[in-house]
Structure formats: structure tokens, C-alpha cells
Amino acid sequence: MTKIQWLSSFDTGISSIDKDHHDLIEAISGVQAALDVDDLESATGLFENFLNMARSHFAREEAFLKKIYFPRIEAHSVAHRELLVMGESIVAQTKNNMDGPQAKKHLEDMVYFLLEDIIKADADFKSYAQEHGAQ
Ligand SMILES: [Fe+2]
Ligand SMILES: [Fe+2]
After folding, report:
1. Mean pLDDT across the stretch 7-26?
2. How do residues 56-99 score in pLDDT, each as one tens digit?
3. CATH: 1.20.120.50, 1.20.1260.10, 3.40.50.720, 2.40.37.10. Which one for 14-132?
């Protein structure tokens, strides 16, 4: 499985948000490590932790976007909610089917899809935030 790498394009320039994103990547590395040894049960538990971290991160990020009056905050917050719903459905599906390489592959694919979306979607506010309140 491809190891997720931090790309400089992920950096938003807002240190608290970048720190959260690094922590999320770190958490996904744990999920990956469990998947690499075919421990789907641990991987699912770690993925649930990751989702909780993402939930807290989204709340912090939305508070920051509100503070700087980011004009697309509504759409960005909706996207956050959708990612959480998707994440929860991945957990439910994986718990329903803990066996076989297909379940592993599915979790692997979805986890990366979700992580990419979580971080890449933030490109939407990057330049605005840098002009209006980078910390
Ligand atoms: Fe974010
Ligand atoms: Fe975001």
C-alpha cells in the first residue's frame, strides 16, 4: 500500500490547521500499519479514532474560518459533514464485513480517498486565509 506523503501543496500556512493535518496523517499511518499486518479489526478502531480527530479538527477549522469571515464557510462546513458521514459509513461497512482481502482493500481505498479530500479541500480557503488572518 502506498504510504501517504506530506506534500508541500497541503500546507495552508496556518500553523494550527497544518498541525492538525499532520496529526491526521499520523493517525492514518497507524491505520495503514494495522492494514499492512491484515489486522482489520484494529484498523477499523484506529480509523474510528481518526474520524473523531477529524471531527474536532473540522470544528476548530470552522471556528477559524468564521473568525476571518471566509465567504464559502457554509459550503466548506457542508463538505466536512459529508466527509464524516462517509467515514461513518466506511466504518459500518467494514464492521459488517471483516473478512477477506476485499474488505481490506475497501477500507484502504476509502481511507485514502477521505484523507485526500479532507486535506485537499482546504486549498479552497488557503489564499483567502493567508490574506485575511494567517496565524
Ligand atoms: Fe482541514
Ligand atoms: Fe476543511
Report:
1. 89
2. 999 999 999 999 999 999 999 999 999 999 899 889 988 888 87
3. 1.20.120.50
Taking the centre of ligand 1 as the mean of its atom positions, its distance from the CA of residue 58, in whole angstroms, is 6
Q: Where are the domains of the chain?
A: 14-132
Asked whether the beta carbons of 5 and 125 are under 8 A apart, the reply is: no
CA distances from 86 to 52, 61, 79 (A): 13, 19, 10
In degrees, rounded to 5, the angle at the alpha carbon of residue 106 between the alpha carbons of residues 99 and 45 is: 70
Q: State the DSSP code for 13.
A: S
| Distance, CA of 46 to CA of 129 (rounded, Å) | 31
C-alpha 23 – ligand 1 centre gap (Å): 11
What DSSP state is assigned to residue 1? -
